[in-house]
From TrEMBL:
Keywords: Carbohydrate metabolism, Glycogen metabolism, Glycosyltransferase, Pyridoxal phosphate, Transferase. This is Alpha-1,4 glucan phosphorylase. It is an enzyme of class 2 (transferase). It comes from Alishewanella agri BL06. The keyword Glycosyltransferase applies. One of its GO terms (molecular function) is glycogen phosphorylase activity. One of its GO terms (cellular component) is cytoplasm. Allosteric enzyme that catalyzes the rate-limiting step in glycogen catabolism, the phosphorolytic cleavage of glycogen to produce glucose-1-phosphate, and plays a central role in maintaining cellular and organismal glucose homeostasis.
């Protein structure tokens, strides 16, 4: 019996492989216009994508038909960022045809790995927030939830990074210069949106006052659909990204009046809206173009949702709140709230209260940070210029909020009104997008337990007093399909054998592994896989940087955007301490370590760029110093991005999660690294706290001040000089940065870091946590010397982090916020 079914499966796989092969060759001929004898890897890759798309599009049509027929309630995820990375292997894995494709290509004389490398990353995001959106839409499809992702079809993704003499150089990322095989243009769903102009007050025949917005400019939004394939299921959802173009009708007018040059200029200006992704992470851009980007995609998306709704329900708005829920990924799309009000009140002529009731049924808001520099505020004057009708609507939302909520609760308390007003008073009036988001949403969530607590206690305490049930937590998660199965195939195969092959959709199954954590056979297999992954990465490091590293060394990895609060410079101080100890004691005994960094700095963030420069200069010195005898290697990997993360994460022994407690909302890299068997060196911040709870205190190296201790220290008056003067090793290291030791002939080139930590007041308490950090690293060193002990801890990490699948995050959102039902897709 068993034999026959295995044989049948093998036959099915054979036919699937044969069909794929035929389809690839067919597309090589008819889509790519080339043939097997002269096709480049690029052409083979594109032909394979086209073959895969035959199945993707089948799933897409089935899913869209089923959703339409069943008139399902759907989630609409609004995000300025989606960090998709590459789609090729993800689509193959999720369709369940990766092995067939690998076989088919092998029979054609091709290595699937070579083709995977042909794809440009789709880097339409900065960091955690954008990658979270990508994991979420994949989980939504996997769990069969009706959902659409909405965003911007940026012509240029996040800049490409290189180093010149250690300094970051940015170059544009024209990721789709030669076309993107995964996207479909939908001219039939084009939208037109308005900006600028003025508002006229008119009275209709009944004497009713009405507001009429006379726009200054019309812009066309062209939708591009990216199919999102669910794992092992039949659902294929859509990521719909809007590209801006000059409106035909507007251009035509100008053209007719003889203004050819003007028309061309208008074209350029309209197309600028979707030209570039703003490269700042956790800082407010505050630029006119950015506001227009936000409004452009929100307006296009809302009109798209309404068009689809009207197809079923005509002008009957009574079901809208039941059919539509919109998740705002941070405040970036918050202008959707006044835009929906405008559409309902001005266009659908609905009474304000009815329109507001709908808004409050539809919007939910996720907060991703407490950092004041990331909380969006728009100068009121700018808002008025770009969106003259929306600012009036915001005034009215605010007027009613202050009167009906704040005044009712705290009568006569003007300080409360000032604090809670959506409009910030002061030298320059500002629109507070966080306040607007809370007032306009029915749910507000933070992204890890501690962060959600701080959102309530520190950011919006009065809002909690007004609406205690509005606030909730959904701890972030990551998709185990990309972040284990696809990126770490060796470990995935071992897990299939040990716990069964359903762990990708049921990650708690990995728990079974914990029973064997002490089993020498499993330990050997697990660590042999880590070793092979490290050897692969060592080759990649050599290729990218010319630096040679020993795969037997401990691989210590810090990968994330560069930011002071993430404290890459604390990591650097540890490296300098070890280096100095080696110079002082040539026999200094330490486990050989490779310190690996990956990080982009926002182009305008001076100190972040200085930190990159310092790490590169220190790396250069240490890597060439014979006295070090390879005990330390330092590698700053250029152009960190999703596809590079996929190579680094499976090879990590140690995961650096060292933000100042209270500053990292959650972190998601921490989850990916632990899942792949890395041991966390981390503070009690964000999701580290929940990771520590899951893996247990013995399998993580926690250090540093807690959130409460950080608060107390700030309040008591933190003085970083105390730490400088009381710790001779720390003092020596910081003084070292001022010499020309790492920049021969150019003293002071690395001094900016020291300055920020002393004169600058050390806002992120680097010096306060230094000693404790070094102690944690010493502990890691000791653990690593005992191979069995280390293997056990690594296995326990993989076994224990099932909670952090994005499937669990999505189920939490469904239960606490979205109230969706899964929809099985008919083939
Ligand atoms: C961003 O990537 C995050 C927060 C932000 O406010 C912005 Cl603008 C960008 C990150 C958080 O820093 C990180 O802790 C969190 O895990 C991630 O969002 C996803 O929630």
């Amino acid at each position: 019996m068993k034999k026959t079914s295995t044989a049948k499966a093998a036959n099915a796989a054979n036919t699937a492989t044969e069909q794929l092969k035929e389809s690839i060759i067919k597309h090589l001929h008819s889509t790519l216009g080339t043939d097997v004898n002269k096709a480049s890897h690029q052409a083979w890759w594109r032909a394979t994508c086209a073959a895969v798309n035959e199945q993707v599009f089948d799933g897409l049509r089935n899913t869209q038909r089923t959703h339409y027929e069943q008139d399902t309630r759907a989630l609409h995820y609004f995000s300025l960022e989606y960090l998709m990375g590459r789609m090729f292997s993800n689509n193959l894995h999720n369709l369940g045809i990766y092995q067939n494709a690998k076989q088919a290509l092998a029979e054609l004389g091709l290595d699937i790995a070579d083709l995977e490398q042909q794809e440009e990353d789709m880097a339409l995001g900065n960091g955690g927030l954008g990658r979270l959106a990508a994991c979420f839409i994949e989980s939504l499809a996997t769990l069969n939830y009706p959902a659409v992702g909405y965003g911007i079809h940026y012509e240029n993704g996040l800049f490409q990074q290189s180093f010149q003499d250690g300094r970051q150089i940015e170059r544009p990322d024209s990721w789709r210069e030669y076309g993107n095989p995964w996207e479909i243009c939908r001219p039939e769903s084009v939208q037109e949106i308005a900006v600028y102009g003025y508002v006229e007050t008119v009275f209709d025949l009944q004497g009713q006052m009405k507001k009429v917005w006379h726009p200054g400019r019309i812009i066309k939004g062209v939708p591009w659909d990216i199919p999102i394939v669910g794992y092992d299921g039949s659902a294929v959802n859509v990521l719909r990204l809007w590209e801006s173009r000059a409106s035909d009708f507007f251009n035509w007018d100008v053209f007719n009046s003889g203004g050819y040059i003007d028309a061309a200029r208008e074209n350029v200006e309209a197309e600028n809206i979707s030209k570039v992704l703003y490269p700042n992470d956790e800082t407010d851009a505050g630029k006119e173009l950015r506001l227009i980007q936000q409004y452009f995609f929100c307006s296009c998306s809302l009109k798209d949702i309404i068009r689809r709704y009207k197809r079923r329900h005509g002008d009957d708005w009574s079901h809208f709140g039941k059919q539509v829920v919109i998740q705002l990924n941070d405040t970036h799309p918050a202008v959707a709230i006044p835009e929906l009000m405008r559409i309902l009140v001005d266009r659908a002529e609905m009474a304000w209260d009815d329109a507001w009731a709908i808004c409050q049924q539809v919007f939910a808001y996720t907060n991703h940070t407490l950092l004041p520099e990331a909380l969006e505020k728009w100068p009121l004057r700018l808002f008025e210029k770009v969106l003259p009708r929306h600012i009036e609507i915001i005034y009215e939302i605010n007027r009613r909020f202050l009167l009906e909520q704040v005044e009712m609760r705290w009568p006569g308390d003007d300080a409360k009104k000032r604090k809670l007003s959506i409009i910030e008073e002061g030298h320059e009036q500002m629109v507070r997008m966080g306040h607007l988001s809370v007032v306009g949403s029915f749910k507000v969530n933070g992204v890890a337990e501690i962060h959600s607590k701080l959102v309530k206690s520190d950011l919006f305490p009065e809002m909690v007093a007004l609406w205690p049930d509005k606030f909730t937590n959904v701890t972030n998660g990551v998709t185990p399909r990309r972040w284990l199965k696809a990126c770490n195939p060796r470990l995935a195969t071992l897990l299939d054998a040990k716990v069964g092959d359903d762990w990708p959709t049921d990650l708690k199954k990995l728990h079974k592994l914990a029973d064997f954590a002490k089993d020498p056979a499993l330990q050997d297999n697990f660590m042999a896989i880590k070793q092979q992954n490290k050897a692969d990465l060592a080759r990649e490091i050599k290729k990218l940087t010319r630096i040679e590293v020993d795969p037997a060394a401990l691989f210590d990895v810090q990968i994330k955007r560069l930011h002071e609060y993430k404290r890459q410079h604390l990591n650097l101080l540890h490296i300098l301490a070890l280096y100095r100890r080696i110079l002082q004691n040539p026999d200094y005994d330490m486990v050989p370590r490779v310190f690996l960094f990956g990080a982009k700095a926002a182009p305008g963030y001076k100190l972040a760029k200085e930190i990159i420069y310092a790490i590169n200069k220190v790396a250069d010195k240490i890597n060439h110093d014979k006295r070090v005898k390879n005990r330390i290697k330092v590698v700053f990997m250029p152009n960190y991005r999703v596809s590079l993360a996929e190579k680094m994460i499976p090879a990590a022994d140690v995961s650096e999660q060292i933000s100042t407690a209270g500053k990292e909302a959650s972190g998601t890299g921490n989850m990916k690294l632990a899942l792949n068997g890395a041991i966390t060196v981390g503070t009690l911040d964000g999701a580290n706290i929940e990771i520590a709870e899951e893996v247990g205190a013995d399998s993580i190296a926690i250090f540093g001040l807690t959130v409460d201790e950080v608060k107390a220290l700030y309040e008591s008056g933190y003085n970083s000089y105390d730490y400088y003067h009381n710790n001779p090793e720390l003092k020596a290291i910081l003084d070292w940065l001022e010499t020309d030791y790492f920049t021969p002939g150019k003293p002071g080139e690395l001094a900016a870091i020291k300055r920020s930590l002393l004169q600058g007041g050390d806002p992120y308490l680097v010096l306060a946590d230094f000693e404790s950090y070094l102690a944690a690293q010493q502990k890691v060193d000791t653990w690593y010397r005992d191979k069995a002990l280390w293997a056990e801890k690594a296995i326990l990490n993989t076994a224990s982090v099932g909670k952090f699948t994005s499937d669990r995050s999505i189920e939490d959102y469904v239960e606490r916020v979205w109230q969706l039902k899964p929809c099985q897709i008919k083939k």
